[in-house]
Design a protein that fits this description.
Distance between the termini: 63 Å
Largest sheet: 2 strands, antiparallel
Number of domains: 1
Radius of gyration: 26 Å
Order of helices and strands: HEEH
Mean pLDDT: 74
Strand order of the largest sheet: 1-2
Structural class: alpha+beta
Low-confidence stretches: none
Number of helices: 2
Strand content: 5-15%
Shape: elongated
Amino acid sequence: MPEKWLHRLFPNGRKAESVGKEYRLVYDGKLTREEVLAQTPAAPWQLVRSFCADRPHAASSRISC
């Protein structure tokens, strides 16, 4: 990244993180993906529901039970 843009993009002196050949902007106060996932509460697993499983139809396109 050219030095002339660093002071405009990062006025407080913080720099961009180099990720391979790309740069990732880091904003003040913005959480990283890992931090967001760590703070997200877990959700319970839901069972997969199947309709008309005990009485299957000959025509699979018909859904009425």
